[in-house]
Each structure stands twice: as C-alpha cells, then as structure tokens.
Specification:
globular, Pnp Oxidase, Chain A, single chain, mainly beta
C-alpha cells in the first residue's frame, strides 16, 4: 500500500470511488448547446434543493457555467459513446438534443436535473458550481458507472434486508430534527 500523495497516486485513489457519469450541459454565448463529461457531481441539499458540479478551471465548460443555468444529464448504461463525445473524443453518431427548462438536455439519459446558478466556490484546481434544482426527470434506464478509469454497468440489486430495522435505514430510521440525544456522562477520574 502506497502512502504517497503524488498526483498519479491521488488520482488512482480517488478513482477507487465508483461514481455515476454525467454530462453537464449549458449554452455558449451564441446559444449553441455545449456539454462536458463530469464524474464530480454531488447532490448537496433537499431544502433548498441543491447539487454541486466540479469542473477543471481550464475547461471551456468552466468558463461557460459561471453564473449560468445548466443541466446535469445522468447517462444511461448504453451511452458510453456520449460520455466519450463530451470528454473530447467525438464519435460518428450525432448527439440528440432537446430543450429543457434551464439548459439543453440530452436524449436517452437515465435522469436529468435542471438547475439555475446558485453560487460558485473555489475548489483548488477546480471550481465548484452549486446549482438550485428547478426540475428533474427520471427515466427507467440503468445508469452508466465509472470506476478505476473504466466504464461499468450496474449489476443486480443487493439484498434489501441489509437496511431493514437498521438505525440508518433511509426509509424508516434516519434521525429527524426532533430527535434528541442525551450525552453519556463522563467518568470522574481520581
């Protein structure tokens, strides 16, 4: 096991975290649809509904998103070519676009999240674009995944029983705002 924090080791370590694959879409100054493949997407808050996208400061999309509305297109498992197209390796098939409430949307996705600009923050060599969710669409298509520098498909479901009656069961066990915790008294040492 390496304890080095050189860029390659750090990138490989981050790559051990499996993510979904998104294409962030917006419009250029002349109104042309533009997109960038991004795995650094995070849901942030339900109230208000916020998401975050991290883009490399030097990317064209980074310059287009500052203060602009955008859409998060969660790619479906059969959209590897779409992911590659927006990562800078266009294929032969044309990209299918459609209008969205805040930005152009891609056709055939697993889900879309339309956002208006909320805030932009410093993220080191990236900028963090926080967006307020104004519309969502969910389609019955399995998502495309990315892990260890390769695309993957979602396998079958694991046993749901793992969550049943667990304090962290998202369906019944999360602590709500009314939950009170009593601190355990500390032992007195003599």
């Amino acid at each position: 096991m390496s304890t080095s924090t050189d860029t390659r080791t750090l990138r490989d370590t981050f790559g051990r975290f499996a993510t979904g694959v998104t294409v962030i879409t917006c419009r250029t100054a002349d109104g042309t649809p533009h997109g960038a493949t991004v795995t650094a997407f995070t849901p942030i808050s339900l109230d208000p509904p916020l998401v975050q996208v991290a883009l490399t400061r030097t990317s064209k999309a980074c310059g287009l998103l500052d203060g602009a509305s955008y859409a998060v297109n969660v790619l479906a498992s059969d959209q590897v070519e779409v992911a590659m197209h927006f990562a800078g390796r266009p294929g032969d098939d044309p990209i299918r676009w459609r209008d969205g409430p805040t930005a152009p949307l891609l056709c055939g996705t697993s889900a879309t999240i339309s956002c208006r600009a909320w805030r932009t923050d410093d993220g080191g060599d990236h900028l963090l674009f926080l967006g307020e969710v104004v519309d969502v669409e969910v389609h019955e298509r399995r998502p495309l995944l990315f892990h260890a520098s390769a695309f993957h498909h979602l396998g079958g479901r694991s046993a749901d029983a793992t969550w049943l009656h667990c304090a962290d069961d998202p369906h019944s066990g999360w602590f709500d705002a009314a939950t009170r915790f009593t601190p355990i008294p500390s032992a007195t040492h003599y």
